[in-house]
Amino acid sequence: MDDGTLRERLWQGFAQLQTLLGGDAAGGVVAEEAGIVASFVPGAPDSPTLNAAIVVGSELGLDRLEQMRERWERIGVRRWGVWVDGANWTVTDTLRLARMRVTTSSPGMAAEIDDADLILGRCRCGGRLVRLLYV
Fold first, then answer.
1. Average pLDDT for 31-50
2. Radius of gyration of the chain measured on its C-alpha atoms
3. Which of 14, 57, 72, 124 is the most exposed place for a label (fewest CB within 10 A)?
């Protein structure tokens, strides 16, 4: 599996995580369209983690960015964010044009399961049995 495939899977995983986080949060709604997964959570107006868009496609137009900003504003969200692969210059240029700035990055990691040295374990946490996966 090449790095491009792993990177694509990583960002699809981020998008799925956003769907879980935003969709399960109080009053959260997830919108998926044209290479963008965004969550809108009025119950967490200061959480750019819950109120965020993940760009998995190759483009994000200024008009789409403005539509999301207006939607977050309508529901009272004060802080929101956009997550994108830093190598996606088309999208990062759009974000700079919109006067947004990079505040953090998430260095994801990926590997083929067959190539990973895995150790399965268990621990008891708060009365629950939790399965652990170590790489």
1. 94
2. 17
3. 124
